[in-house]
Amino acid sequence: LSGLAFLSAGSTPSRGPYGEEVEKCVDFILAHTDSTGFINLEGAATHGPMYGHGFATLFLAEAYGMSRRDDVRDKLAEAVKLIVGTQNQEGGWRYQPRRHDADISVTICQVMALRAARNAGLYVPAETITRCVDYVKRSQNADGGFVYMLSTGGTSAFPRSAAGIVALYSAGVYEGTEVEKGLEYLMN
């Protein structure tokens, strides 16, 4: 996330006022990408490393789009492959890189990463995005807000509802009943 902040300030790898810091972020993430493509800091205190994987993949995609470094592309491609391969039957993702269950918050991190990777020129299967969109749409309550998990249902909440709309936008869904109802829920 720090790397994304530096990029949003106008710096790119090795260029701009934070170019050196961006380069260090890239190198750090590359050094912590294992042979499966999983980006994770071993021993870090987190119950949900797929959040970090999604954000790190998003950062790598943005950095690759600005630098076109082959080593970044290779690690990015592996990180994307891991995301695609760990999408569960419902169409979402959860805390660990396995196809067990899913929640809306981890799912949004993965779909944002996939969108950035696709924008940077990497292949992302259309089926992965279609299944994700279906998952997000099924996560919407009648009031327009979104539940945390399909398997548990529950009430809507503002943060996950905002995430649901971002997930749809990141997947290329900019209009429709779900978007309209979700935006109305957020505005209310």
Nutshell version of this structure?
The protein is an all-alpha fold and 188 residues long. The chain is built from 8 helices and no strands.
Name the features:
188 residues, single chain, 57% helix, 8 helices
Task: State the end-to-end distance.
Answer: 29 Å
User: What characteristic shape results from the CA principal axes?
Assistant: globular
Radius of gyration: 17 Å
Quote the beta fraction.
under 5%
Number of strands: 0
Summarize the structure in words.
Helix 1 packs antiparallel against helix 2 (19-31), helix 4 packs antiparallel against helix 5 and helix 5 (104-119) packs antiparallel against helix 6 (126-138). The chain is globular and about 50 Å long. The model has no long low-confidence stretch (mean pLDDT 95). The chain has helices spanning 2-8, 19-31, 49-67, 70-85, 104-119, 126-138, 158-170, 177-187. The protein has 188 residues and is mainly alpha-helical. It has eight helices and no strands.
